[in-house]
Amino acid sequence: MKFLIKPIIDKYLENKSYEYVNYSIDYPPEAVFGDYSTNLAMVLAKKIKQNPINIAQDFKAFCENSEFSNKFKIKIEKPGFINFFLTNETISKEFLTLYQKKETYFQFENMPKKKIQIEFVSANPTGPLHIGHGRGAAIGDSLARILNFLGYNVVREYYINDAGYQMYILGLSTFLRYKELLGQKIEFPQDAYQGEYIKDIARDLIKTYQDNLLSMDNAIDICLDKAKNTIMNDILHDMENFKVTFDVFFSESSLFQNNEVEHTIELLKSKGFTYEKDGALWLKTTQFNDDKDRVLIKQDGKYTYLSSDIAYHKNKFLKRGFDMVIDIWGSDHHGYVARLKAALEALGIDSQKLIVLLVQFVNLIQENNKISMSTRKATYIELKELIKEIGTDAARFIFVSKSINSHLDIDISLLKKKSMDNPVYYIQYAHARIMSILEKSNCNNELDESMIKLLQETEEINLIKSLLQFKEYLHDSAKTLEPYLITKSLLMISEKLHQFYNKHKVIGENKDLSCARVGLIKTVAFVLALGLSLIGIQAKNKM
RNA sequence: GCGCCCGUAGCUCAGCUGGAUAGAGCAACGGCCUUCUAAGCCGUGGGCCAGAGGUUCGAAUCCUCUCGGGCGCGCCA
Fold this sequence. Notes:
The strands form four sheets. Strands 7-6-5-11-12 form a five-stranded parallel beta sheet. The longest helix has 24 residues, at 511-534. 37% of the residues are buried. By secondary structure, it is α/β, with parallel strands linked by helices. β5, α5 (131-149) and β6 (153-160) form a beta-alpha-beta unit. The chain has five domains: 2-86, Gyrase A, domain 2; 92-111 and 423-534, Isoleucyl-tRNA Synthetase, Domain 1, CATH 1.10.730; 115-160 and 249-359, 3-Layer(aba) Sandwich (Rossmann fold); 165-235, no CATH class; 362-421, no CATH class. It contains 20 helices and 15 strands.
């Protein structure tokens, strides 16, 4: 309920006609310091060269003479912290609002109309998804759910890199395995796809075509199509099991078919941002903050990957009119951000509308050694396997509960052994506990102000506070694009619920109190289910 | 060599627009089920916040350097 605190501080600053002051409102480290605290006095002290304690006292007096005086109490601490203690009345009132408004309590008052695209996973259809992709998938999907809930118009997109050399290699790899299985001698190149799944696809091809492909001119194309479709289906199947969906699958090759790549390059040319050198066409990205200029058309006349990517992002912004585009990439692509943004600027598109989230790699721990995931070195674990071992909920929770900047280490053998220790069960258990109590209770009265006033125990107040804080975490999560804040809040709510449960009975002799408590835990269950749904995890009724 | 991310408890991670004795989960140890789910609750131990300087009333947080790890630095995608 920071929004209860902020107005009074701003009013104070306005009253004193101080210019912009960069103060913060935080949760104090311990409950004895109150519900909220601000460093206002200490920040001001520097600015106006006064003792922070004096400023704090002045602020306190100002509050006590304002219409806010009954909402919270203020205490001043050592260096100059101003601590706010919400009164139980304030908390009850706020809780009643939450109870009545349900999800709209957590949404913005003015629903944003912004059109946001989130592009994520976008793994090349050249092999199965591994747990690195799983991290990007869980984060992208959760962000989409969160922003969608807050009222943004969100489109989830998967970009299929189905053009270019990699695809040719995929087709070739498949064709070679096909020949091999038919008893021919082949040389399998090192940069071909080594995985067993290629052989499976080749086997399917033999079922369909017998040995007829050997004499066909377009054999590699047929192999490529088959491989691409098979792998894409496998990826989709994994995503479905991981509860990740997409609205749009955008094909890179369609950009070539529609001449969008060509037109984009022409546009850049006409704007004068290109030049020819060494038989190639270059884009002057250095004019827009890049280290060096980049090639658009190679000596051999083919477009670079950057060219189609510029066309793709031009399509996002100019053709489809997204107000904001969030690309979720692996951190290995970070060097690519500057050139793409530069290209957008060259096209006259505000590059700030493009937000690239770089998700750090997932490292595997095997026998106490870190191994980075690589498809080539075959040091990866398929997402399928992780889901099979610990389930979608536990797997998603691991990915979503960490900041995207953290270098995540996963020891799969440890995970298997201790999968029941996953904190997701702590939350789901809290929900299941509530549902079990609700089955036994027969109170269906709606909460009103007088009933809420019965909830005065420390554990009840703490539980209510944690529910109200969910709003802050949710909004911070959307603002910072960090879904882990949701998990953090849900864990706190669950903790408060378990503490309450262990100390107090919901169903008891006092009918009114029982009903009030039923209303309370119903609301807890509602918020837990809402929060879990925002990270794509099931709320369980029984465990 | 240059750039990005990171180094916090035995393990996995929060805290990093500078603030109050550095947090959580797991692991370890000790308690709590004749009463709504013990996948829970209560308690204990555990840290030169990689290291060294600096700025500041105040640094895990900001600056510089060093060490260690991951990833980039293609007319690959």
